[in-house]
Amino acid sequence: MTMQGDAFLKCIDPDCGLEYPITSTNVQCEKGHLLDVKYKNKPAEKLKDVFYQRRNPQGSIFNESGVWRFRELLNFCQIDTENLEECAQNLVSLDGAEGRLSKPYHMSKAAEFVGIKSDNFWLQPEGYNPSGSFKDNGMVTAVTHAKMVGAKKIVCASTGNTSASAGMFAANEGIDCDVYIPSGQIAPGKLSQAYQFGAQIVQVEGNFDDALKQSLDDAKKDGYTVNSVNPFRIEGQKTIPFRALEYLEWEVPDWIVYPGGALGNTSSCGKALMELYEWGWIKKIPRIAVINAEGARTLSDLYNGDFNGEELRWNKGKPNTDLINEYYDDHDIKGLLPKTKATAIQIGKPANILKGLRALEFTNGVVTTVTDSEMLDSMSVVGLNGFDCEMASGASVVGVKKLMEQEIIKKDDKVVGILTGRQKDAMLPVDYHHNAANRFAKPPKN
Ligand SMILES: *Cc1c(COP(=O)(O)O)cnc(C)c1O
Ligand SMILES: [Zn+2]
Prior knowledge:
The protein is of the alpha/beta class. It has a domain at about 110-130 and about 235-435: Rossmann fold (3-Layer(aba) Sandwich). About 40% of the residues lie in helices and about 15% in strands. The chain has 17 helices and twelve strands. It has helices spanning about 45-55, 60-65, 85-90, 110-115, 135-150, 160-175, 190-195, 210-220, 230-235, 240-245, 265-280, 300-305, 320-335, 355-365, 370-385, 395-405, 425-435; strands at about 5-10, 20, 35-40, 120-125, 155, 175-180, 200-205, 225, 255-260, 285-295, 365-370, 415-420. The strands form three sheets. The chain has a five-stranded parallel sheet, with helices on both faces. Strands 7-6-5-8 form a four-stranded parallel sheet, sandwiched between helices. The longest helix has 15 residues, at about 210-220. The N and C termini lie far apart (about 65 Å). About 55% of the residues are buried. The mean pLDDT is about 95. It binds pyridoxal-5'-phosphate and zinc ion (ZN). Zinc ion binds near residues 13, 29, 31 and 33.
């Protein structure tokens, strides 16, 4: 099926609604609002069978790929999706490895820790992507778009995993990659990947939010931005819920749970669910739970009314953006910086906050916070099931525990938690297990 002229970009603000051609590299409309990739055609529900059949890849890396297996649902290249030669010319892929191994698993020890029946609880290890995090799902699509517009260099700011993913795909495609990092705040295991893949590291004095600002400015000159403000990142990350739902035979769970950083994942999940619901592929809408670190809790503070008393909402496209700016100004004046050992979610100004609010409104979502020590326990209990994940991913596990204790998640609810990345901070588990006071510690013997 070729769908010429099917895909375009559209501003998310319903009052603005500016549209751009699919080849535009803007990450915002000219009034500064975020953009969505939109499709005019409605995909046929019988594609569910096609996706299932592609799990026997029959020699095609685009069927093997956990992202491109769903290519009809993110066909912004507007190619004939059954023509494998056209796929090969247009779609970036690391030999089909992106998204291939990640699907929901039962993990009984994690379920026991959470206090939920194991049959009702799944964790989806996105760390089993080629660069070790969920970022690969969205990076293949962003780099596909970069290739479509002839970009020679991709640019990102990173708390670590974005740079590993961007560096990997850039190296594979033979294009340049500049990575802006807050100096001294990146887990060495992530930074070393970016070096290894030949990326140009640019050290920025300040935190992630400062690095993002500088990278966006510099990219205007000669780079293509691959942070999650890029709407094509969001398209690829829709396949995270697609894989979860497909595995559950499209019977939606009650909850999908994510750690919240820049809120790209939350936005993708919301967009995926909005589209599936609009097409009639799902009849029920799962609720999204976003878990912030206690030390990086912008969304939680604003959503739950912990700043100035107002509960910030998407409000059908009219969010109180002044409240967000007041929050940022207040934090700047007081010199309050995000602080958590879970560096992947150590973000004070989530770039996708408005799309995140939209996702929360559509899904009747909730937001809460967890402590560093709770994330470390969760990371550790996931390990006891034979899976590894990084500290930020632990938020998805202990977040469920917390929401169950508050009876927001009910005892018989079905829950899918996303484990966003693999362990790359080698000393965290070592330090954890050396301290016998930690809940799951197994200290070394002499
Ligand atoms: C990037 C990242 C996050 C944060 O995801 P957002 O989409 O920015 O909210 C969480 N965990 C890991 C491991 C990450 O790499
Ligand atoms: Zn706009």
